[in-house]
Write a structure and sequence with these properties.
The complex is a heterodimer of chains A (320) and B (222). Chain A is mainly α and 320 residues long. Chain A has helices at residues 4-24, 31-68, 82-92, 97-116, 119-122, 130-150, 156-168, 174-187, 190-201, 207-225, 228-247, 252-267, 274-277, 279-283, 291-317. Chain A starts with a helix and ends with a helix. The chains are: A mainly alpha (320), B mainly alpha (222).
Chain lengths: 320, 222
């Protein structure tokens, strides 16, 4: 069965390319730091299951050491001159979009085929990994098409891939690091402590105020943890279930669904949701690493108010 | 119960505010939180390592970068700009409203990975929207250019977050159902996903209004 292990083997191979490409980039004064950083991720992808928990912990410390003490940098090498790119763009025309569309297309068709044909029952792909496996297939097909059609130099993929990789830099592993921080927070009982604090300040009898606190609690806790998934069970246990659903007789479907969406408003406003907010700032080469968060606040706050009103009117008043 | 582990959260907030390297901030906070929570150092290290290893799938997505990089070598971004230059009436705001709608609908159908910051925003959306903004304002200053690019990423996020919960088999819906079942409340996924629709509509209206406002500030298209 094709599962995550296959993807990790593939990802390890790609990161070998990133390490080689980084080492080849002489315009980067800290190229060996970059090469070491990506090599550690190769070790993680290929041998992570054999290192043991402490071994993996040391690997994490090494990654943090390299990034935290500024041992990785960025090169200034571009692939081709602006003029070459302009000419190539004119020569190939809109056909250039086709390889870029292979990846979404593979995901789209693959999802349909997997869900609506007996392929699902054959057990070729692990259902948990199916989205990423299709994504990986799309990437491989796109690479083959590009090499056959455009015939770039052999190492161009390595150089161009690591050019982008190094423009993102350490931010690339931040989401994974935050996920492990979540594991520690859970083990140290942070969630239950916050839940207990919120239940202690909740006013009894005023349903609207309880709704507001429930939504704000989702937002604040989501901003701290970086995702609403960690916040939901805590806030549901502290306010949603005992006070709104059991106490006030609110509709559980609304309290559940819209409570989670109130949390998503928090996701828009926190650097802790790194893969949505910090990584794209690096990927788009913004000067301000919080640039994406900043423009999202003005959408998140009005939307939070809408969510509070939906929770109150549809969840509570309408349910009576 | 002890409130001491909450100091770890404070460390994260301070570290991010002072703009230390986020990787360092997160690691220090993880270790401090674990120690204050009464875990011995080796246990903290093991928990951190275990969590990192179990979450490797999060980082797999970057295997897309060689594809994007190679296409950029052959002028993908230039092509995206050229296409927009040819469309009359294309403005940054209108383009992003269309992208928002498409992203919400695709996410609502469960197709969350067909678009994204690496897949679509960097190679296609951001260059197109910047090109449209350049048509609206011939000398686009640096803060405005940054803002337009940031808006492209923000629009992707809004479309994803407030579309995906309409799909019944998405993680968050299953999590809500699972948590509620833990309290003895039985819900069906379809019931939950229906209640994601009002917020999805609000998100579209609010963010579109902001995009139209962006257009007003950029000026009329030529």
């Amino acid at each position: 069965m094709i599962d995550y292990q296959w993807l990790y083997a593939l990802a390890g191979a790609v990161f070998v390319g990133f390490a080689i490409g980084s080492a080849r980039d002489e315009t980067n004064p800290r190229r060996w730091g970059n090469a070491a950083f990506w090599s550690l991720l190769v070790v993680s992808f290929w041998f992570g299951d054999f290192l043991g928990d402490i071994g993996n912990g040391l690997l994490v410390l090494a990654l943090v050491g390299i990034a935290g003490f500024h041992l990785i940098g960025r090169g200034s090498k571009e692939s081709g001159t602006p003029k070459q790119r302009e000419q190539s763009s004119q020569r190939h025309g809109n056909k250039l979009f086709l390889p870029a569309l292979i990846i979404p297309f593979t995901a789209f068709v693959g999802t349909l085929v997997f869900n609506y044909t007996p392929l699902n029952a054959l057990g070729i792909i692990d259902p948990k990994a199916v989205t990423l496996v299709l994504f990986g297939c799309g990437v491989l097909i796109a690479l083959v098409v590009i090499y056959l059609w455009l015939r770039p130099p052999v190492l161009a993929g390595v150089d161009d891939g690591s050019r982008l990789t190094n423009s993102i830099g350490w931010a690339m592993v931040l989401p994974q690091m935050l996920a492990s921080l979540g594991v520690i927070f859970a083990a140290a009982g942070v969630g239950t402590t916050i839940g207990a604090m919120v239940s202690a300040i909740i006013p009894h009898g005023n349903v609207f105020l309880a709704v507001v606190l429930y939504a704000l609690g989702m937002v604040v806790f989501t901003m701290i943890m970086g995702n609403a998934f960690a916040a939901f069970p805590v806030m549901a246990a502290a306010i949603g279930v005992p006070i709104l659903i059991h106490g006030a007789g609110a509709d559980p479907a609304v309290i559940g669904a819209v409570g989670m969406l109130a949390g998503f408003c928090g996701t828009l406003m926190t650097p802790m949701a790194a893969n949505f907010n910090i990584v794209p700032a690096a990927l788009l080469e913004l000067k301000d690493q919080y640039g994406v968060v900043r423009v999202q606040v003005a959408t998140a706050i009005p939307l939070l108010i809408c969510n509070i009103l939906i929770l109150y009117f549809a969840g509570y008043l309408w349910a009576h | 119960m002890t409130y001491l582990p909450l100091l770890g959260i404070l460390l994260v907030v301070i570290g991010f505010a002072l703009r230390f390297n986020p990787l360092l901030v997160v690691a220090v906070s993880a270790i401090v939180t674990g120690l204050l929570g009464g875990m011995p150092f080796l246990k903290v290290l093991a928990t951190l390592g275990h969590g990192f290893n179990e979450n490797r799938y999060v980082t797999v997505i970057w295997i897309i970068l060689p594809v994007v990089g190679l296409l950029e070598r052959y002028g993908l971004q230039e092509r995206a700009r050229a296409v927009i230059a040819d469309i009359r009436g294309a403005t940054a705001g209108r383009l992003l409203i269309v992208y928002l709608a498409v992203r919400q609908i695709l996410s609502a159908l469960g197709l969350t990975t067909v678009a994204g910051h690496a897949q679509t925003v960097r190679p296609l959306v951001a260059p197109m929207v910047t090109a449209a903004a350049e048509k609206q304002q011939s000398e686009l200053d640096e803060p405005t250019r940054e803002r337009v690019k940031a808006m492209s990423a923000a629009t992707d996020n809004v479309g994803l977050f407030f579309g995906e919960d309409i799909f019944i088999a998405i993680g968050s819906i299953l999590l809500i159902q699972g948590s509620m079942a833990g309290f003895g409340i039985e819900l069906t996924p379809i019931h939950l996903s229906l209640w994601a629709i009002p917020t999805a509509i609000c998100a579209f209206l609010i963010h579109s209004a902001r995009l139209l406002w962006l257009d007003r500030k950029l000026g009329r298209g030529r």
